[in-house]
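Standup notes
- HV: blocked on the assembly model, inputs below
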Amino acid sequence: MFSHMIPRASRPLLRSANNTFRASPSTLYLVDKVQSRRSYATETEEKDLVIIGGGVAGYVAAIKAGQEGLKVACIEKRGSLGGTCLNVGCIPSKSLLNNSHLYHQILHDTKNRGIEVGDVKLNLKQMMKAKETSVNGLTKGIEFLFKKNNVEYIKGTGAFADEHTVQVNLTEGGETSVRGKNILIATGSEATPFPGLTIDEKKVITSTGAIALETVPKKMVVIGGGIIGLEMASVWSRLGAEVTVVEFLGQIGGPGMDAEISKNIQKTLGKQGIKFKLNTKVMEGDDSGSDVKIKVEAAKGGKEETLDADVVLVAIGRRPYTAGLGLENIGLETDNRGRIVIDQEYRTKIPHIRVIGDVTFGPMLAHKAEEEAVAAIEFITKNYGHVNYGAIPSVMYTHPEVAWVGQNEAELKEAGVKYKVGSFPFSANSRAKTNLDSDGMVKFLADAETDRILGIHIVGPNAGEMIAEGVLALEYGASSEDVARTSHAHPTLAEAFKEAAMATHGKAIHY
Ligand SMILES: Cc1cc2nc3c(=O)[nH]c(=O)nc-3n(C[C@H](O)[C@H](O)[C@H](O)COP(=O)(O)OP(=O)(O)OC[C@H]3O[C@@H](n4cnc5c(N)ncnc54)[C@H](O)[C@@H]3O)c2cc1C
């Protein structure tokens, strides 16, 4: 889909007089033009770049632009920087996942390790406070980085007045407007609602409510067995809720997760107490009473059933967010899924207006948004940019974690690619066994003829960290033999990674 990106090898690089790499002569002209324009006294009010949205996409772009010497302003309406990710997404969810895991482990998994604990009590208020401490520290950190890199932070809601002007409704009251030679839209996404259920973030919640519940629900139904749904299901199940996940598809984790890995993690989460209803369609919900009733039936039609819950989490996906942005004032349209349409340089049909992050194409992931932010600024300042959409990892932070990069077996089969498989179980890895934490496996998929790695899929402890090695291998076009011949420290979980590569290329030693 994004094959238009310039491959690393073909980037036009020249060494400049001060020994730093710069772009080709035509690109140099562009950089110089941007820099010299800034010196006109009459244009001092105009920014080189105005960014709408201070989420991961927007704030990273702002910092990068500041580093490149652009005069930049970033407009954010939330009252704090970091967007969904830092405020109500990646960070708070991982704080709750980490601490609920500790709680669950102390309750159920210490005696056999020789640790005897007394009364264990959950203090949910304090757990939420710990989450807020992490969030506040990180969002304030971005404000500091803005100052350090001369980024002007405008608190308010931005809307296009014309192709170069953004009108801002200031959070503190009043209005201002800011002009930009370039404008970057990074307004992110929002939870997709479920028709017929009214989100009140108490009884019927999105992930935003799920990271802020004041009490542990007795019964929770999660509509949608994707990554966000399963992470939240894990948190509340560990804290004592009876959780049922209803999923339309025949597997959990979303279609990107390899089917074998999905089955593996479903079994483990099932042992942890989460119930699953796969191939099941939610027909309607009734939230008029004190609890919520969810009517479900088999996806292919058939038996109906009603599930009762005191809290229902709607986790059926997210959709691009452009409300109030005034796209109509400049004639910009969205596609049938609400995404703003762009070309390979993130440009809309108005070339100085670019779009990155959740509000446009590609996976809705913070690190994807970050990569695009850097590339978009490089397109503005240097005329080239690089994001390898084939090597963006996905991670599910349950316990054990699931992580993957590249293609899964179903995708390779569909594309008619001949591939070989090599896998290694954590039950044969010395460190996982030592840690008494050995559920899961590492699985490599490599081209049958060339041995080039096509996909790596991990379910197991620390999978989210381990996948970084897989991403690097894919990025550099490594073969499974390359990884198999690379020394990995002993005893580490990463040895399972090496052994899976050995199993793909030849034979694993320890299994
Ligand atoms: C519960 C949850 C967990 C997640 N966990 C992970 C994870 O572990 N790893 C991962 O990679 N991704 C995760 N994500 C996804 C990740 O949060 C998003 O991919 C990422 O935040 C996208 O960044 P963005 O900057 O494009 O959008 P956002 O982070 O949504 O930021 C957009 C910002 O723009 C602001 N804005 C919108 N319109 C305007 C306007 N008109 N004027 C001014 N400001 C405006 C919004 O207030 C918002 O702050 C998670 C998401 C959720 C919901």
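- HV (later): unblocked. Confidence is low (pLDDT under 50) at residues 1-44. The chain has three domains: 47-113+120-191+319-382, 212-308, 400-505.
- Next: hand off to the docking folks.
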